[in-house]
Design brief:
The chain is an alpha+beta fold. It has helices spanning about 5, 95-110, 115-125, 150-160, 170-180, 185-190, 195-210, 220-234; strands at about 10-15, 25-35, 45-55, 60-70, 135, 140. The radius of gyration is 43 Å and the shape is elongated.
Length: about 230
């Protein structure tokens, strides 16, 4: 067979690939020559990796690399374990946070600013830190309004009816509103008839809190009320 004819005969020689990419299945490169080498395809069960033109003097030589395809799809990687959610931080609210919470609550119940200041000013005199678990009078009084006797009993029943603890701050705010609507509705009427912080504070003290004379301290209650007004509304 003459050399010109040899150029048109496909000659296949298998050559092992010297370098394999990481994780790649065994691959084989076939050195192909002949005028139709560029049309060569990978065999059944193989896929093409690369296609390189080596070229002899007549441009009729090249290298065609294929690799075997594994049966079936590879198993997907398992989903990573979810990060654990951080534990909620159980901390006591600051006094200012409690004041803001109380202001927002009474605003939501349509109380006027001056009356809200009067209410919370009184509460701060009863419990300076607005501690819903505070005990006074030898343990007889409880909470931010220092309820005692039947009123304390009513608070406990109110909290239980809502599935809350008796020393829950927001529950005690709700109980104040409840009393002003029901058992102490007359206190509410007196309170809302006042137009100044001083008058509102005194009205709430005398009609709702009703402290003993020696623990009244109207001046301190009024100062607290003015602080509340400045903090929440100015």
């Amino acid at each position: 067979m003459v050399l010109a004819e040899k150029a048109w005969v496909s000659i296949v020689r298998e050559v092992s690939v010297a370098r394999k990419s990481e994780g790649e299945a065994d691959s084989t490169c076939k050195k192909l020559s002949g005028s139709d080498w560029r049309s060569k395809k990978c065999g059944e069960g193989e896929e093409e990796i690369s296609f390189t033109d080596i070229s002899d003097r007549e441009g009729n030589e090249g290298k065609h690399c294929c690799k075997k395809v594994e049966d079936g799809e590879p198993d997907p990687e398992p989903d990573p374990e979810p990060e654990p959610e951080p534990e909620p931080v159980d901390r006591e609210l600051t006094v200012n946070e409690k004041i803001k919470l109380a202001c927002d609550y009474f605003v939501s119940e349509n109380y006027e600013e001056v009356h809200i200041a009067g209410i919370i000013g009184n509460l701060r005199q009863e419990s300076s830190t607005l501690n819903p678990g505070e005990l006074g009078d030898g343990g007889d009084s409880l909470g931010i309004a220092q309820w005692q006797g039947s009123r304390r009993d009513n608070l406990e029943e109110f909290a239980e009816s809502k599935g809350k603890l008796v020393d829950d701050f927001e529950t005690q705010l709700e109980f104040i509103d409840y009393e002003l609507e029901t058992t102490h509705s007359s206190s509410y009427r007196v309170l809302v008839s006042k137009n100044t912080i001083e008058d509102a504070t005194e009205a709430f003290m005398k009609s709702y809190e009703r402290p003993k004379a020696e623990s009244a301290h109207l001046d301190k209650r009024t100062d607290y009320a003015k602080e509340v007004n400045s903090f929440c509304f100015t």
